[in-house]
Amino acid sequence: MKYTETHEWIHLEGQVGIIGITEHAQKQLGDIVFVELPKIGRTVKAGDEIAVLESTKAAADVYTPVSGTILEVNESLKEIPEKINQDPEKAGWIYKIQLSDVNEVEKLLDFSAYELITK
Length: 119
Known about the structure:
By secondary structure, this protein is of the alpha+beta class. The protein has 4 helices and 9 strands, in the order βββαβββββααβα. The strands form 2 sheets. A 6-stranded antiparallel β-sheet has the order 1-2-3-9-8-5. Strands 4-6-7 form a 3-stranded antiparallel β-sheet. β6 (49-55) and β7 (59-63) form a beta hairpin. The protein is globular, with a radius of gyration of 13 Å. 34% of the residues are buried.
């Protein structure tokens, strides 16, 4: 897994990235009550706002760590947004993206570098 300074994670499966928010981010947000998912087929550039999470504390934008095309979204989050609180780095994934440039992942943080910015 790689991480962003804006608290997203990405797990690569070949040319496809699975993306969500980190454990740290969900703790900061509190109970998530609504998720605005990205549109399948949308082409995005790294850093674009891609989704919105609303919690009992605040609304937060989710940014895409890589460029590409949205392949799939986690539809279950529409009915059970709290999955992000329960398991943010697995079952609470937000979307899958077909990467246009796999090398963009190399610019992201590894876990130890990410851990430093959360302290």
